[in-house]
Write a structure and sequence with these properties.
Blueprint (H helix, E strand, L loop, with lengths): L1 H23 L1 E8 L10 E4 L5 E3 L5 E6 L5 E6 L2 E7 L8 E2 L10 E3 L5 E3 L7 E5 L22 E5 L8 E5 L12 E4 L2 E3 L12 E2 L13 E7 L2 H4 L10 E6 L9 E13 L13 E2 L12 E2 L4 H6 L13 E3 L5 E3 L6 H5 L3 E13 L3 E13 L6 E15 L3 E15 L3 E2 L6 H6 L26 H7 L25 H6 L2 E18 L4 E20 L10 E24 L2 E26 L10 E26 L3 E12 L8 E12 H4 L7 E15 L11 E8 L2 E6 L8 E2 L7 E14 L4 E20 L8 E23 L3 E18 L6 E5 L6 E6 L6 E4 L11 E2 L12 E5 L4 E11 L2 E11 L2 E4 H8 L17 E7 L8 E7 L2 H11 L11 E3 L2 E12 L12 E16 L19 E2 L6 E11 L1
Length: 1083
């Protein structure tokens, strides 16, 4: 009986304990989403300190039993920051996982779209998530990479809406090429050619291929910086590879619908700081000796007002009534900010929608996007429409068929004209004296920029520069001054036409068959086809071309790649092998049809068929590359990897005897934290890597190695005449059949380490790269019948370091991620052609500076005139105080930055995310043609020095009182008179007399490149709605220049994406600041 009593008591006690435990245990549910608010499948949800856990389903939902309120749940997924959350009394826990910049992804997409383990990579590869490009948007995707990746130097060209960008990876590698990387979209090599680049005589920036891409379609962008990583792409990857992977469908329940709407406003950042004390006028010649040695004078009549309309060497403002360029008297006083009057607030509205879905066998994603934008320049804008389809189907568990198609339609209206083109409205605004309201240039309200009806005949004769025979007519351009090339800004924006459209189709189809569980074969076809049409009208009545002109053209570019790969991956005991071989056949054709006409038979009817004189042109070219390639990676115990690759290309543009080249690479990586035990617990991961690679580079056009014949439009005795080569006659280029590809050789070493449970990391790389046998044009004896030829010459060297620091100082409900990247590249021209020590790349029309390759100097040295010095080293002046410019051009600077870097911060808390990107460039120089001209015209602040005794202009040096053959240097140490100061500044800012070095500036800057503040609604607020996720963010781009060392202009300004234009600035488009809002909704 006692035993029964004891058994009953123990049973009751055990039941009571279990009841208490089960009473405390309960179920917690919730949803885990990614930073976009989309359900996150496969996330591990584990009770901390135990092995108990679950994973989220296809929609990101989960349920888990927890023992008590003190339970801590750990949410983790590779590549995302883990979160630890105390359950408390809550029964629903919704979590947003943020990307962890300190973690390594398991695999990364490398050359030819092959996925490789990060542990096995032997060179530097950086991946940026697509979310970085969709909030604070850039029309050109390349600009969005600025400041994000060590060793990637992005130059934003001030070319207006959807202008081009210039990206250089690890320095310029060729002396004559553009040095831009190969862009690959889902395995398709994309033509990123820029059209209409500004140059010596101006021009316009008509964008490049990157403007075609819809940011909402981007999954990630991977930059292959090292030659070993890019070698498998062959010669076109000699400058690195930017690999864009777009989004695709995934297995899920039902359809996933996502809508994104983004609106931004864009304003010009007014960096101008011009003098506001003096206005229109000039120094008069009192002694009639040709020297303006009198006093500053205001215009005394309508003729002087027109002649002096664009120069500000008059007296101080006094408020009196003074005639202006149009013969109307207005107050001689400062009229305020002309920038605000002319530049408008630009805007861009982007709407996109995507539908995706999938099962075990098929997936798809269909998206559409529409961009409508207006520039800060009046009557200028850019529109883009994108349609993208991605599909994948798997048959019988062995056969997989995938396809991707991306169609883009782009329309640009009135792209602004740049640099020294007469149609550059920006230049016209800059050169307007402070007493002139730029809105007075509007003239005829029914035809902006035109001479209005009712203008007196006397004034029309003045507009014709005093000639009755050349008197202008109402409706023609109202010039601001007696300079036919000095454009009226409203005539330039409202009457000119600079339009272009582009239809582009990028697509691919791939079939993969898994022969066994370790061996596969695949074949694919890739295409990049586009048609581009352009139209440019100089209207009748334009000052420099009264008859007007019209040009129209169409480009058709077709490139197709056919590729096959046989590959496999297998493990043998302690060894793993990952290898493949393959081949590629590339065919490319380019065709252009163009017509232009001058003068029109019927007034104001701009059509080619109405042109008084017409010219037509047609060009066609074809080229191809046949390739074979292979790669083998051998791993040992998962910590030691050896990789070797090889590719052989055969080029159609080269002579068959020299058209084959082999590019090998070899590399190794060693994960020492996996190889050794007993390492410190704070060392989470450590890998050392090294590689060597060679890549060929071919920078010549089709048929350049062959003698060609073309018609030149002339005739003799009724027979059509032709010319050899492209230029013809003694000026032509004789083909060189012995041309071979240039060869780039690179060695890279580096290491990657993580500390304190991957919360902090250091990634370091050092590289040394040399390009030999570059292809350059050289001058030859004209006795040969030609003027030049292309030869394999020259050697160019780059070496540098790259550093990436990452960290998560705070992790939990509040997460703070930070990354800092820094890079330095040292570049040197080792040699050029035998007997040649310099080679000219670029020059502005004013010829104040030249960009040259000089042996022993960095790529693209800026050369210019400096002040002449006496034998004893003293500056030489003329008798009237003007500095004497050197007769030769000497190196004065270089347009390449010494250091580039960026600081990226991201803080997230309960659905709120704040991110900030700072972009930094240190060192390098820029020649400012803007400041050069402003000084000459009397508008720059420094032109105040010496006027009317204010801020005396003091000179100290010597004057040659002898002759040029027998100089006698007499000391000079005095202040210049006001009229001498006028001559001084007019001289140093002129063309033939300019002192170039006075307008060379340090191009360093630090910019707040991007700032976003976003909020994702918690799932509890969306439970009874059709929405899966909703997020709203406020965005800003190019918000502030934190420091710079140049006045009036942005040190980032460049008038062209051409390789030789770096370090030159000449009346570029104003830098813009954008701010707006982004709404994303998922269903």
């Amino acid at each position: 009986m006692k035993n029964n009593y004891l058994l009953i008591s123990l049973s009751l006690l055990f039941f009571l304990a279990c009841s208490t435990a089960f009473a405390q245990q309960r179920t917690v549910s919730g949803k885990v989403v990614d930073p976009n608010g989309t359900g996150f499948p496969g996330v591990n949800v584990i009770i901390k300190g135990t092995a108990t856990g679950t994973t989220t389903n296809a929609d990101g939902e989960y349920k888990i039993a927890v023992p008590d309120n003190n339970t801590v749940l750990v949410y983790s997924f590779i590549g995302y920051a883990a979160q630890e959350v105390t359950v408390g009394s809550r029964s629903v826990l919704d979590i947003t996982l943020a990307e962890d910049v300190t973690q390594l992804s398991e695999v990364v997409v490398t050359a030819l779209g092959v996925e490789r383990s990060v542990k096995a990579l032997q060179s530097s590869v950086t991946t940026v998530s697509g979310d970085n490009f969709t909030q604070a948007r850039e029309n050109n995707l390349g600009n969005a990479l600025s400041g994000r990746i060590a060793g990637v130097n992005v130059s934003k060209i001030s070319g207006g809406p959807a202008g081009s960008s210039r990206i250089v990876i690890r320095g310029n590698k060729t002396l004559g090429g553009q040095n831009q990387p190969l862009y690959v979209i889902d395995g398709v090599p994309m033509d990123n050619s820029g059209f209409g680049q500004a140059g010596l005589w101006g021009g316009r920036d008509e964008g490049d291929g990157l403007t075609s891409i819809n940011p909402d379609d981007i999954e990630s962008i991977t930059v292959l910086k090292g030659a070993s990583a890019a070698a498998l792409y062959g010669s076109r990857a000699g400058n690195g590879v930017i690999n864009v992977v777009t989004k695709k469908g995934t297995k899920r329940k039902g359809l996933g619908i996502e809508f994104n709407s983004n609106y931004v406003a864009e304003t010009a950042i007014n960096l101008s700081d011009l003098q506001t004390k003096y206005g229109t006028g000039n120094y008069v010649d009192q002694t009639n000796d040709g020297i303006r040695n009198g006093i500053a004078s205001k215009p005394k009549d309508a003729s002087e007002a027109f002649n002096w309309g664009n120069i500000a060497w008059g007296p101080k403002f006094d408020g009196s009534q003074v005639l202006q360029f149009d013969g109307v008297a207005r107050p001689y006083s400062y009229q305020g900010d002309n920038w605000k009057r002319f530049y408008q607030t630009g805007n861009a509205l982007t709407n996109s929608v995507s539908i995706s879905g999938g099962s075990d066998k098929q997936t798809f994603r269909l998206s559409a996007a529409d961009l409508r934008s207006n520039s800060i320049i009046p009557n200028s804008g850019y529109d883009r429409t994108n349609l993208t389809l991605s599909t994948s189907s798997r048959f019988a568990d062995k056969l997989t068929v995938t396809s991707k198609m991306m169609y883009t339609h782009e329309t640009a209206h009135n792209r602004p004209v740049l640099s020294d083109s007469p149609g550059n409205a920006v230049q016209s605004i800059w050169r307007t004296p402070g007493n002139v309201n730029v809105e007075n240039y509007k003239g005829d309200p029914n035809k902006l920029g035109a001479i209005p009806e009712g203008t007196s005949q006397e004034q029309l004769i003045i507009y014709g520069q005093g000639s009755a025979a050349n008197a202008r007519r109402p409706g023609q351009e109202l010039l601001p001054a007696a300079n036919n090339w000095g454009q009226n800004p409203y005539w330039a924006t409202e009457q000119f036409i600079n339009d272009d459209t582009r239809d582009r189709l990028i697509g691919s189809g791939e079939v993969r068959y898994d022969i066994t569980d370790w061996l596969y074969a695949s074949g694919s076809i890739q295409m990049d086809w586009y048609t581009r049409r352009d139209k440019s009208l100089t209207p009748q009545g334009t000052g420099y071309q009264l008859g007007g002109s019209l040009s129209e053209g169409e480009d058709r570019v077709r490139e197709t790649n056919t590729q096959w790969i046989l590959g496999g991956s297998k493990t043998f005991s302690q060894f793993s092998v990952n290898a493949f071989v393959g081949g590629n056949v590339m065919r490319r054709s380019s065709e252009r049809i163009a017509a232009n006409g001058n003068g029109f038979n019927v007034d104001f009817f701009p059509a080619i068929n109405n042109a008084a004189t017409r010219n037509y042109g047609y060009g066609f070219s074809e080229s191809g590359i046949n390739s074979m390639f292979g790669s083998a990676e051998i791993g040992y115990n998962g910590y030691l990897f050896l990789t070797a690759t090889a590719r052989n290309d055969w080029f159609s543009v080269l002579n068959p005897d020299y058209n084959s080249i082999l590019y090998p690479s070899v590399g190794a990586s060693f994960v020492f934290t996996d190889a050794f035990t007993g390492l410190p617990s704070w060392l989470s991961f450590g890998k050392a890597r090294a590689s060597w690679a060679q890549v060929g580079i071919v920078n010549i056009n089709p048929y350049a190695a062959n003698l060609t014949y073309s018609l030149n439009g002339s005739s003799h005795l009724g027979r059509t005449m032709g010319t050899f080569s492209s230029a013809g006659g003694n000026n032509g280029n004789i083909p060189n059949p012995a041309l071979q590809p240039a060869l780039s050789t690179e060695i890279e070493v580096g290491f990657d380490t993580k500390f304190f449970d991957n919360r902090f990391g250091v990634d370091f790389a050092y590289y040394h790269q040399t390009t030999t046998d570059d292809i350059l044009g050289v001058t030859i004896s004209r006795a040969s019948g030609f003027g030049s030829t292309n030869v394999n010459v020259g050697e160019l060297q780059n070496k540098g370091v790259e550093l990436l620091l990452t960290g998560t100082p705070v992790r939990g409900e509040v997460t703070w991620d930070i990354s800092v990247n820094l890079a330095k590249n040292v570049n040197k021209v080792i040699n050029l052609v035998d007997g040649v020590t310099e080679f000219t790349l670029e020059e502005p029309r004013t010829r104040n500076v030249f960009i040259k390759h000089i042996v022993g100097q960095p790529f693209g040295t800026i050369t210019g005139r400096v002040q002449q010095m006496s034998p004893s080293g003293e500056p030489i002046f003329l008798a009237d105080g003007r500095p004497l410019a050197s007769t030769t051009y000497v190196p004065i600077g270089n347009g390449l930055a010494n250091w580039t870097g960026g600081i990226n911060n991201s803080v997230s808390w309960k659905g709120v995310n704040l991110s900030m990107l700072i972009d930094i460039k240190l060192g390098g120089d820029i020649f400012s043609g803007t400041n050069n001209r402003l000084t000459q015209w009397g508008l720059h602040q420094q032109s105040l020095i010496g006027r009317d005794g204010e801020k005396p202009l003091h000179i100290k040096g010597v004057v040659n009182t002898g002759t040029s053959d027998a100089p006698v240097y007499t000391p000079v140490d005095r202040d210049l008179t006001p009229h001498e100061a006028n001559s001084y500044w007019g001289s140093v800012g002129g063309e033939s007399t300019a002192i170039s070095s006075m307008f060379l500036y340090d191009a360093s800057f630090m910019k707040l490149r991007q700032l976003t503040l976003g909020y994702s609604l918690p799932r509890t607020m969306l439970e009874n709605t059709p929405f899966q996720n909703v997020s709203l963010s406020f965005v800003g781009r190019n918000l502030a220049i934190l420091f710079k060392n140049i006045d009036n202009v942005d040190p980032e300004s460049a008038y062209s994406a051409n390789a030789g234009a770096q370090g030159l600035e000449y009346f570029a488009m104003p830098t813009t600041r954008s701010y707006g809002v982004n709404l994303r909704v998922g269903f």
